[in-house]
Amino acid sequence: MRKYSIFSLARNALSHHENWWQAWRSPEPKKRYDAVIIGGGGHGLSTAYYLAKEHGMTNIAVIEKGWLGGGNTGRNTTIIRSNYLWTASAGIYEKGLKLWEGITQEVNFNMMLSQRGVLNLGHNLQDMRTIERRVNANRLNGVDGVVLNAQQVKEMVPIINTSETNTRFPVLGSSYQPRGGIARHDALAWGMARACDDLGIDVIQQCEVTGIRREDGQVTGVDTTKGFIETNKVGAVTAGNSGVIADMAGIRLPVQSRPLQALVSEPIKPVIDTVVMSGAVHVYISQSDKGELVIGAGVDKYNGYGQKGSISVIEEQLAALVELYPIVSRLRLLRHWAGCVDVCPDASPLLTKTPVDGLYFNCGWGTGGWKATLGSGWCFAHTIANDEPHPLNEAFSMKRFETGAVIDEHGAAGVAH
Amino acid sequence: MLHIKCPWCGWRDESEFGYGGEAHIERPKDPDSVSDAEWADYLFFGSNRRGDFRERWVHSAGCRRWFNAVRDTTTYEFKAFYRMGEEPPGGEQ
Predict the structure, then answer these.
(1) Is the dihedral of CA A190, A193, A195, A197 positive or negative?
(2) A307 part of contact set with chain B, CB < 8 Å
(3) In a domain, A7, yes or no
(4) Whether A255 contacts chain B with CB within 8 A
């Protein structure tokens, strides 16, 4: 791989940046691969990357029906944190956060990880008790976190309204994870595609999977719009469309696909240098380097693959936003979009083997997959390579819905996942 | 915002309604006799269909009655509304 550096930047400046080399190939699919990853989003690309890097499997393909960064990887609000309640979640999300901290150097691509901290607000006594419990659980699991009172929140976020007299949901305090923050989402798609390509992995765009062939309960290959590809291991990492892939393999999943919307305001001068989320009033906010306020909330209430949602959801989150931050009331919105997320009943993901041998699913991340992309890929690569889950993702199997050992993260995930 | 036709009240805005997910999921008649896997399938697993999807809605800010609808989950266009207990239009999916 040709490195990006200050020297390559200077050299290319001499030719007006018209001769930058290609970051990755656009190969035609081979006849056979040792493993095929369906879905070229952050989770799929990092799965392929760690399969090659940690497990020595380089004859693999990542198949993407659209283009890199065109799905949820490019549609999220880029928040990264690991302050989940349960031990199983702390393990996988913290693994993800640790990988985030090193990935820029590792793949020589600036992910612009900005560990500006994440606050989760509490608006009533029960919220504050839950926050204390969660922060204590985090610290026992080696995840950083502190509890802040309203005054400390105000010092950290001067634009927030902490008045107790004129707000419907006063701010009483928050949890704070200093190592949380944001990262650049298209950089993950491009950086990981480039790193995959460098390891010999074929990243194939504009290629849709149309069928999954099986013989005696074992995967034998995938039919695609670019022809049949032979393989004995298929990792499905298709987020909102997991149900569609599951259908092709004749299995059912405990996920529902919902629209999730987000929006950005016009750019303004810096007003907030951290990330603030509120599960109770349903809104979260951060400010991009360009100055736009990046705003998100919960999913729409109905199933939908259309990558669009209802305006009433936007109206509610903006009402909450104006109550929390009165100075934004006259801001104009610049863009508004939606993705399609697959939500599990317990707000935790699935990284699991399936009743079909050689078919693995990594899905159900719902509204909060972005932060976990690298940890998810790392664990899923282990699962595919060894046909066994890693201890970090053992609890995230489909079996948990039979045994009752669900990992209920609605509290930590809340609306703002 | 979706426009939804309550079989009793007529066309109203989505904000008056609650969503009940997939329709026509039958509770096992004898819960004690089914396996854990079958119970999990009833409780948690679903078709999550892309395309025409039969789903339940409740007119919570209106007549508060439940009803079923068929909606295309890619375009969000409603194809039919029908009352609880009525046969879904279009037959088996």
Answers:
(1) negative
(2) no
(3) no
(4) yes
> Which residue of chain B has the CA closest to A341?
B48
Q: pLDDT value at position B92?
A: 55
B31/B35 Cα distance (integer angstroms): 9
Q: Do A256 and B21 touch (CB under 8 A)?
A: yes
**What average pLDDT values come out for chain A (417 residues) when binned by 10 residues?**
92 95 95 98 98 97 96 95 95 98 97 97 94 96 97 97 87 97 96 97 98 96 98 97 95 96 96 94 93 94 96 94 95 95 95 97 95 98 98 96 93 58
Tell me: do A31 and A103 sit in the same domain. yes
Using DSSP's 3-state secondary structure scheme, residue A142 falls into coil
Q: State whether A208 and A292 are in the same domain.
A: no
CA distance A75 to A185: 8
* CATH of the structural domain B3-25+44-83, one choice from 3.40.50.170, 1.10.357.20, 3.30.2270.10, 3.20.20.70: 3.30.2270.10
Is A141 an interface residue toward B (CB < 8 Å)? no
What CATH number is attached to the domain comprising A357?
3.50.50.60
| Domain count within chain A | 2
* Per-residue pLDDT at B93: 57
**Could you read off the pLDDT of B37-61 as tens digits, one per residue?**
999 999 999 999 999 999 999 999 9
Contact between B48 and A311 using a beta-carbon 8 Å cutoff: no
Specify whether the CB–CB gap between A207 and A64 falls below 8 A.
Answer: yes
What strands lie across the sheet with A209-215, from one edge to the other? A209-215, A218-224, A227-230
End position of a domain, from candidates A313, A343, A373: A343
| DSSP letter assigned to residue A154 | H
Indicate if A250 and A137 belong to the same structural domain. Answer: no
Regarding whether A132 and A194 lie in a shared domain, the answer is: no
Looking at this predicted complex, what is its ipTM? 0.94
CB contact under 8 A, B45 and A306: no
pTM of the model: 0.95
Residues of chain B neighbouring A241 (CB-CB closer than 8 A): 50
